[in-house]
Amino acid sequence: MGELTHTDHNGKASMVDVTDKESSERTAIACGKITMTAEAFKALKENALKKGDALSTARIAGIMGAKKTAELIPLCHPLMLTKISVDLELDEKSNSVLCRCSTKLKGRTGVEMEALTGVNIALLTIYDMCKALDKNMVISDIHLEEKKGGKSGDHYYKKGTD
Fold this sequence. Notes:
The chain is an alpha+beta fold. The protein has one domain: Alpha-Beta Plaits, CATH 3.30.70. The protein is built from four helices and five strands, in the order E-H-H-H-E-E-H-E-E. The chain has helices at residues 38-45, 54-67, 69-72, 112-130, and strands at 24-35, 83-91, 96-107, 138-148, 155-156. Helix 2 runs antiparallel to helix 4. It is elongated. The two termini are 13 Å apart. 36% of the residues are buried.
C-alpha cells in the first residue's frame, strides 16, 4: 500500500507538487450506472422526457464535468485534457444506463479524478432529467476501470477486492 500524497509532514491537506515529475501520456476510464423504473427507462429510451434528450445532454454534461474537476475537488490540479469521451449504453434487462468516461492527456499527473467526475456528472444529469418519473433511481457501481501511464504504472479494476 502506498503513502498518502495529499498531506504534508504534519498531516494537513496539501496539493502535491508535480513540478519535477516527468510528462507522460496518461489515460483513465471510469464506469458507473443509473437504474430506474421501467416507465422512466422507456421515456428515456424513446426520448420522450419533458426536459428533452437526456442522453445527449448527459454526454455533454459528463465532458463538461471532467473539464471542471479541479474546480470541484480541492486538491486536484487543473489539467489540459486532450481527449474526453462519455459513452452511454442502455441496458433494457435492468432498466439501467451504463456510463463510461475516458480521459487522456500528456502531463505530469493522472486523469483518474476527471474520468470519475465525468461519470458522476453524466449520471446525475440523467437523474435530473428523469426525476419527474422516478425519484427512486439509484446511481451505483462508480469505479475506476483502468488507468495507464505515470510513475505508479497501470491499474485495472479487480471486482470484489474491497
